[in-house]
Amino acid sequence: MMRSLSNIFWLGTKELRSFLHDYVLIGLVIYAFSFAVITSAQSNSQELNNASIAIADEDHSQLSRRIAGAFLPPLFQTPQFIAVADIVPLMNAGKYTFVIDIPPRFEQDVRGGRSPGLQIDVDATAMIQAGLGSGDAQQIITTEIAEFLAHTEQAPLSTVNLDVRIAFNPNVTTAWFTSVMGIINNVTMLAIIMSGAAIIREREHGTMDHLLAMPLTPFEIAMSKVWANGLVITVAVGLSLYVAVRTILGIPIAGSIPLFMVGVVIYLFFATAVGIFLGTVTRSMPQLGLLFMLVFLPMNMLSGSNTPLESMPVWLSTAMQASPSTHFVSFAQSILYRGAGIGIVWPQFLAVALVGGLFFGLALWRFRSVAAQTT
User: Fold this and answer.
1) What is the bridge-based pairing of β-strands 98-102 and 119-122?
2) Can you give 27-83 as a three-state secondary structure string?
3) What are the 10-residue block averages of pLDDT along the chain, 375 residues in total?
4) What is the DSSP letter of 84?
5) Would you state the pLDDT for residue 241?
6) Model pLDDT, residue 372
7) Which of 24, 271, 312, 353 gets the highest tally of CB atoms within 10 A of its CB?
8) Count helices and strands in the chain by DSSP H and E runs
9) Where, residue-wise, is CATH 3.40.1710.10 in the chain?
10) Cβ(99)–Cβ(121) under 8 Å?
């Protein structure tokens, strides 16, 4: 037993030395957990921010002025008043994303209960701004009209006040979500690539034959690659959370990072096993890259990190419960976003460990088959 552990340890240190001399792989790890996380959080914004808006006020009434004054930063820029004839030329020039055309006698028709029309012109080439801003603009205008009528004799005061409270991310800031999800996706990506590349590298350099000729078992060789590559990714994840997410981006982490790191270690047992399995199936790095895309993309896109499981068909969301990546995303969000403890996330930890153990057994069986063919 001690001899086997010693072999695993020293083979793992050999793997770490090999990694430290692969500057391209080192650069990939540093990029994936630093620059890629920061740029993804800062550039992939899903919030309305500083949208340009103009108002063509043909009514010049108290209600029209209330509507114009309701569009405030940071969602919208200060509204600019323009003539109706300038709407099309200015929007064609891309000067404004939104233009609100308030028709004549708008307030009079509202007071009279005649449901007048109010036109919002939207430049849909700015897709995110247009999609979010049109809904916000409609809500702002509806609220202003309702409050305006509430102070008149025609409409009684509402007996119900709706108070919406958003938990865990009060301002619905995209960066709070994309930064952590970027780290989670990169864990899967690099674990598969690094462990698979380790097998391919041994075969291409001819050192696999040397290892098989030594008094080593396939289990010892596979476990050495699991712990060595897992250690590199675990350290990178911890530094990324503390440095990139908390320090540089200033994003709060609600839960325990050490508890999350325990979950990462458990998940890496599965992800590195996938890489070892792919490394035994393929014969070169190009083949590994092609097969990696077929495995990683569906597992990543259907794990819940990009699309909630509730939005998927029932059969698909049920089938994805067999994937450890789904449970990994689930307990990561519970711990880092909601501050969940081990009493809540232990079922996900257990599911990842069980499925990861089964897949590691499959990868080890495949590795032994390839080793037997080689010898």
Assistant:
1) antiparallel
2) HHHHHHCCHHHHHHHHHCCCCCCCECEEEEECCCCHHHHHHHHCCCCCCECCCEECC
3) 82 87 88 90 74 92 91 89 91 91 91 87 83 87 86 60 79 82 90 88 73 76 87 94 90 91 92 88 85 89 84 88 91 91 93 90 82 61
4) G
5) 93
6) 63
7) 271
8) 15, 4
9) 53-150
10) yes
Distance CA 196, CA 29 (A): 15
Q: How many residues would you count in the chain? A: 375
The number of beta carbons lying within 10 Å of the beta carbon of residue 20 is 11
Sign (positive or negative) of CA dihedral 177, 180, 184, 190: positive
Q: Is 346 helix (H, G, I), strand (E, B) or coil?
A: helix
**pTM of the entire predicted model:** 0.77
**Smallest Cα–Cα separation from 331: which of 255, 275, 274, 270?**
255
pLDDT (0 to 100) of residue 312: 86
Name which of 136, 1, 19, 21 is nearest 72 in CA terms.
136
Write down the pLDDT at residue 29: 92
CA distances from 193 to 47, 201, 294, 359 (A): 33, 12, 13, 16
Q: What's the pLDDT at 223?
A: 86
- Report the pLDDT value the prediction gives residue 152, as an integer from 0 to 100: 60
pLDDT at 264: 94
- pLDDT, position 350: 94
**Contact predicate 348/303, CB 8 Å:** no
Contacts of 205 (CB under 8 A, 6+ apart): none
What is the predicted pLDDT for the residue at 104?
A: 93
CA 135 to the chain's CA centroid: 24
Long-range contacts from 140-146, C-beta under 8 angstroms, 24+ separation: 140/67, 140/70, 140/71, 141/67, 141/70, 141/100, 143/70, 144/63, 144/66, 144/67, 144/70, 145/63, 145/67, 145/110
197, 288 Cβ separation under 8 angstroms: yes
- What residues are paired with 99 via a beta bridge? 54, 121
CA distance 196 to 188: 12
Q: Could you tell me if 43 and 68 are in contact, meaning their C-beta atoms sit under 8 angstroms apart?
A: no
> What is the model's pLDDT at position 96?
92
The CATH code for residues 53-150 is 3.40.1710.10
